[in-house]
Please model this.
Amino acid sequence: MPYDYDIAIIGAGAAGYSAAIYAGRSGASAVIFDKGMGGGLTSEADEIENYPGFKKIKGPELMERMKEHASQYAKMHFLEEVKDLKVYDDGIDVISSKRIYKVGAVILCTGTEHRKLGVKGEEEFRGRGVSYCATCDGPFFVGKDVVVVGGGNTAISEAIYLKDIGCNVTVIHRRDELRAEKILEDEAKQKGVNFIWNSVVEEIFGDEMVKGVKIKNVKTGEIKEIKASGVFVSIGEEPNNELAKKVGAQLDEHGYVKVDRLQRTSVKRVYAAGDITGGVRQIVTACGEGATAALASLEVIGKRNPFR
Model:
């Protein structure tokens, strides 16, 4: 059947941009759809120090470089959300917010979104003191008391960033030790970040803006209030798996899309790459998975994978 594009890539992050480059260089026509302006969660990263080739680079800059590169090989459809997919034996209908496209294969690079605390006041004060991105909103809180909720690499990196720009930072963590790398923990402590251990946020309170949080010690049950103008939630991510569910792709127990070594899902013509597939969820692995998915998807559009 005639296709509008050989391959549709859904999600313009590291995996999506890499898939576009490899698809285009292999002779396939490719299009990227993104409901925003691309970049994914990487665009929120202040400093990236573990992407090969760059000792240090800001997340938005890295994503802009990838976008510029990928745009040589694929059409970019930003601000166009894919609402549904219909899979047939001979192709796939990509149903977007603008029209329906006929394609030969789809690569899901839909990534993840920030996990919510699910406590009273979180939604009410979102954008009025509650944030999920320190580099986006941190400058509004210079000189003020803020709390960071979480204990992983992202949470401690954000705490360090907030401290560096002049915030008074307290990390609230449900355990008595961090999941973050030791080097980050040491840096945070050396810079004067405060820690409250064995505690969870029960409520975020305020009036027009956030005024503080109520926390509960998970060992003693003690409840106390911490004054803060900002609450930065960094407790992990949830997979954006709605489209995967709609096509019936198999998911793991955490909601990530299951793939084989060639990034095939359980549904023919549908591939997945990047954070949506779980695992270590790093930029470098997303790039590799995107490249693999693009090359593997050639098998269903009648083109040869040059590396097999």
User: Anything to note?
Assistant: The chain has a mean pLDDT of 95. Helices lie at 14-25, 59-70, 134-137, 153-164, 182-190, 242-247, 283-297. The chain is about 25% helix and 30% strand. The CA atoms of residues 75 and 265 lie 24 Å apart.
